[in-house]
Design brief:
The protein is mainly alpha-helical and 215 residues long. The protein has 11 helices and no strands.
């Protein structure tokens, strides 16, 4: 007599929705395609990105990236248009250089908005998802990438800003100490949605898995 196997219980878990490549019609009809042609794709590929518009970055982040929890064709379209390489990173460099030239600027104040920094986080995550090189555009400016990484960390640990203001003088140890203090005191991810928290943690995982990269 053959023993009958008890039916197994399925574990219910949150599985991310599959990313489907947009069709040609979807690409042509998307608002993001028109925005990219106006500001960083099209003629801007040779002339450089248009003048920085923080409201544009905020609009793309809130209406297109956040609207579907960063799990949408919008992020795929932004990657296709090279949003990170042609707009977000070049303007971060310009804003960081301008902020560095102001003597009274704080070492821990970000030269760009929260939406700008989180947009960079999401676009780097998308590159990892697509298994394409994620760090190439940062190689020419490794020092500025260090500034970017510090500002991204401070997004999740805003209460550590005063503690890490001396990081430019004492190196990464000051930021590390501030982050450790934030975790021990429970002051993390203030004002973050759950989707933003997940994106941020995924970004950190991707960074830790890229220790072999020289930046």
């Amino acid at each position: 007599m053959q023993a009958t196997r008890a039916p197994s219980k399925k574990k219910h878990s949150r599985v991310p929705r599959a990313h489907h490549a947009p069709t040609v019609q979807q690409i042509l009809s998307s608002d993001l395609t028109q925005l990219s042609l106006e500001h960083w794709a099209g003629d801007a590929r040779t002339t450089g990105p248009s003048a920085y518009d923080a409201k544009l970055v905020e609009r793309i982040y809130t209406q297109h990236m956040c609207a579907h929890g960063f799990d949408s064709q919008a992020v795929v379209l932004l990657e296709l248009s090279r949003y990170l390489e042609r707009y977000l990173w070049p303007h971060f460099l310009q804003c960081a250089a301008a902020a560095a030239s102001v003597p009274s600027s704080s070492a821990c104040s970000s030269p760009v908005s929260r939406a700008h920094l989180m947009s960079i986080v999401v676009m780097i995550n998308e590159k990892f998802r697509q298994k394409v090189p994620a760090w190439e555009c940062f190689r020419a400016e490794p020092d500025r990438f260090g500034v970017l990484f510090q500002q991204i960390l401070l997004l999740a640990f805003p209460s550590t800003s005063s503690s890490s203001s001396s990081s430019s003088e004492h190196g990464a140890s000051a930021t590390d100490g501030a982050v450790s203090w934030a975790f021990s005191s429970g002051v993390v991810f203030e004002g973050f949605s759950w989707e933003e928290r997940a994106a941020f943690v995924l970004f950190l995982v991707n960074c830790f898995q890229s220790f072999e990269e020289t930046l």
